[in-house]
Design goal:
Number of helices: 12
Mean pLDDT: 91
Shape: globular
Number of strands: 20
Low-confidence stretches: none
Distance between the termini: 53 Å
Structural class: alpha/beta
Strand order of the largest sheet: 4-5-3-6-7-8-9-10-14-13-12-11
Strand content: 15-25%
Largest sheet: 12 strands, mixed
Amino acid sequence: MIPRSAVSGIRWPAVPNHAAARLLAVYHQLEWSEWLSPAELERLQLSALGRLLQHATRTVPHYRERPEYAEVAASPLTPDSWRRLPVLTRAELQDAGSSLRSESVPTDHLPLNETVTSGSTGRPVRAVTTAVTHLFWMALTLREQLWHGRDLTATLAAIRTPPPGGIPAGGARLAGWGAAVDLVYETGPCALFSVQQDVGRQAEWLAAVDPEYLLSLPSNLVALARHFGGTGARLSKLRQVCSYGEALGPHVRDTCRDAFGVELVDMYSSQEVGYLALQCPATEQYHVQSEAVRVDVLDDDGDPCRPGDIGRVVVTPLHNLAMPLVRYDLGDYAEVGATCGCGRGLPVLTRIVGRQRNMLTLPTGEQVWPLFGARAWAHIDAVRQLQVVQHDLDHLEARVVGPRPLTPDEEAELTAVLHQRLSYPFRLSFTYLDRIDREKGLKFEDFVSLV
């Protein structure tokens, strides 16, 4: 693929402008580093983390005032010394306020930008990013697009959370796919629509746009897939579905494949940190973006999880010198994967399983991740949307959206399905609703624990 050329009369070999050349320089290093061995990647990452920690202990009050950070920063960083550092919780991040901000940000990292997270954990926080973290975000965006071999000249449709200025009711059309791609390559148009619109309206809009690529939240993609599946309509040009912003349930890929006839590509990110892991171009696993972020998946004792184990996700952006987040607990859980067969040395996550607040608590006190994919109850046509709420240790509420209430036999059938999937005979009550609103950050949770 030939980049844009900034020199008149020269198309190939392209001569990109300064900003594009800088982005391509970082991206081409990513093309090299993804094939390094896991040991070499960790060596480079620990070196970067050591420099970050030294900067933090010199210029950030939160770290400067705690001797445990200075002690580790005084020597070359090792995996063992890294694990001795405290985990930064979301509550601590809130309480720390400006004490987590550097008093001396290098000028070549400016300008700064402040973002407020969606608060999907119930704890909104403010984070500061820099021009450098934005550069890495663009480079990883470019990697994600090129990994999956997309035709950048095609039409992308994005049904997403509206930006601060909103999206017009009839949708919007942009000339390109976004700054990270448009800066380097000629791209096709991007059509935007708000995820807050009714699914039927979204489907009508999508049919009119008829895109080659579709991007949206997983729960919204499932609703669209069911709508298209119910009407028998197809998107004739669609080549791929892309998802972001929510943990991908076990049924989403199959539901989209059945309805749209294409594969789904997912990405894992957070507003505070940016990209954490991107789906491998050869498998459905995720590769941690080690050139930009350290991701530790820890068990209940704070030790690294082994392949096949599920633990809490603790992250450290490598290059944010304005607001270093050292071993920050996102509140997510993920399953660690083994070495990927694609040959890349980047660490592997098999799946991202969501938020701690959405763990199911059994009467024994044990917490498990609730799996009740739509395929288990999709044959009950009176259930269009299902949300399960745990009110106490033995009581679940099934909130059902559909054309009519379930019959007694259907309630019994859904109860049996949930008992089987959740591995316990909870007392189940049913509530029938016209709609289930999304959380504040426009993220839909199909399981909510109030325990």
